[in-house]
Amino acid sequence: QASADPVQDKTQGQSVLEQALQEVIGRLCDKGEGSKQVTAREVLAGVEDVVLLHVESPESFFVMRTRDWKMADMMRMQMKRKWMEGGWGKVKVDDIAVLKDDDATEYHRVKVITIESDLAWVTYIDQGNNSQVPLTSLVCMSENLSTLPPMAHHCTLAGVSSEHEWNEEAARGVRLFSGKDVCKATVVGSRDCMGKNIMIVMFSKEEDQTDISLLDFLVFRALASREGQDLEGSSLPISFRSFLYLPLDRTVQEHLVKVVHVDTPDQM
Length: 268
Hints:
This protein is α+β, with helices and mostly antiparallel strands. It is built from seven helices and eleven strands.
C-alpha cells in the first residue's frame, strides 16, 4: 500500500549512500563538541598516502589523502543534489557554495572571494586553487557540507631552501615528479603563513622498489636547492641520470663494470 505522506515517500526514496553520508556529516559536525578542536597537523599526521592537487611552488602545494577519496565521492553526490535544487547565482561574498564545473559530472565546494558583475572569484576548498567562474554556476551550500574540514591540505616541502619568487619550472617539476601517482607525505612540523597553518612535509614516491625524494628530484634537476646550499653547483647535471626512468638491477648486490667514457669524475 502506497504511503499518503509525500515527505515519507521522499525519505524512503533516498539512496542508502545518501543516508549514510548524512549520518557521517552529522557525526563530523558533532565531533569536537566538549573537546578541543582538531588542528590541521593532527588531521594530517604521520605518513599518509596522498595525491597531488594543486602546485604553486615547492613551498606551497596541496594534497589530498587517499583515505578521503570515498568521502569526497559521497560529498560530490550531495553537492550535485543541492545544485539541482536551484538558487543559481544567489550567493554573496564569503559564502560557501557548490560550483558546477563545465564537466557535468564535476561539482566542487568553493568559497566566494569577490563578485564582479556576473562573475565571481572563488577558492576551491578541496583543491586549493582559485578561479573566476560565472555567478550562475554557483548555489549556496547547506550548512552540514559547508562546515566539513577541507580535504586539500596545504603543504611546504621540508628541507628546501626558501625562494623570494619561484619560477614556473619548479612548480612543473613538482607536478612531473608526482603525476597522478599515489605519493607519501610525512609531516615533520608546521608553520603559520598569514594566519593559515601549513604542514611541513617530506614528500616521496616509490620507483623501482625504492623511495625517491621530491627534494632530491628537484635538487638533481637544479630546480631547487637544499637549505644552506646555493642553487648553482648544488646538484648534478640533468643529463646524468633520470630518477624516474632508470631501472635498478637488483638481481645481485655487486656488478663488475668497465668504464667506457668519461666526461667528468661525477659523470661517466
